[in-house]
Design brief:
The chain is of the alpha/beta class. The chain folds into two domains: about 160 residues, 3-Layer(aba) Sandwich (Rossmann fold), CATH 3.40.50; about 150 residues, Glycogen Phosphorylase B (Rossmann fold, 3-Layer(aba) Sandwich), CATH 3.40.50. The chain has twelve helices and twelve strands. It has a six-stranded parallel beta sheet with strand order 2-1-3-4-5-6. Strands 9-8-7-10-11-12 form a six-stranded parallel beta sheet, with helices on both faces. Helix 1 packs across helix 12 and helix 6 crosses helix 10. It is globular. About 45% of the residues are buried.
Length: about 375
Amino acid sequence: MQDARCRMRGPMSGFSEALMRVLVLTSHIPFADGGELRRAHGLLQALRAAGHTADLLVLSQNRFGRTLLGYAAAALTDVGFGSGGPPDVVISLRFPCYLACHPRHVVWLCHRLREYDDLWDFYRVRWSPAQRIKERFRRWVVTRLDRWALRRAGALWAISREVAGRLERGLGLQARVLYQPPPPRPYRTDRYGPFVLWVSRMTELKRPRLAVEAMVHVQSGLSLWMVGDGPEAEAVRQYVRERGLEKCVRVLGAVSENELIRLYAECRGVLFTTYREDFGLVTVEAFASGKPVIVCRDGGGATELVSHGRNGYVVEPRPEAIARYLDRWGEDVRVAERQGEQARRTVRELQWPRVVAALLGEG
């Protein structure tokens, strides 16, 4: 697998000597609206704003069970040419893109394949004994491919301490942490309205039902508006009906980008109930909108920018605990306003030009 395209030209120094041709690689599930694409386009825009020639190549993320074919496709992808000349540097954002061979390859990792990484125990109990045997072998292969590919990267960055910790525990590799700024959007603050916003894909790991269960205990009159779709959406709607919460919980489903920006601008704050998130764009988008965030203590990277009592709250993943802090916002809007201002100050430290400088070795 090793060839001349994969051999590094030495350390990543010298990148900042001139404007460069940069190819950004990410992977994506067709028809999905994932944060990985928003991150890729944000980086692409920042590279171009800095004067570099940049383009984006999106690889297909194969369905689970065809992972090794996806890895083979990434390894065989020719990233050594382009119209007008080859890229000077390739920046990969997630699996399996870092299998592509280029002599100057930077990785800014969102995550590896989580079923074989930090969520192995979460998923394997759901598999049959026969499937566990197959997946154990595939995990063994993928782990060794990941270690080989990421070890040869010219620079290895992680999107959060959570992801860096997974790399150290799973592969024995050290990565520097580089937080992502919010995607370029016209964020604003209109008011601190009488509802808290929940924004995520409705899956088991995002725990939408936990957010609804918290509303059973809310006493302040604050309501919950939920944005997102997914496999858990109908079960959430049914649970809302069963508990008689239709007056205080609105399940909006998918909304347009303009509508999402408006909801961020008008909510009291944001509730983010995710479990072991890689980073969580919801947090930085809420902060950019001047809104505080409640996250759960086991929220992984989602907790790293939230300072308890300053720009939001970090709470136990229990409905009663979440409700107690929602009521602090509900009973006194000034608490949310003060925390929202601190949230805006926090996110100002995250700037796309700094990300570009770090990834290209200029900082």
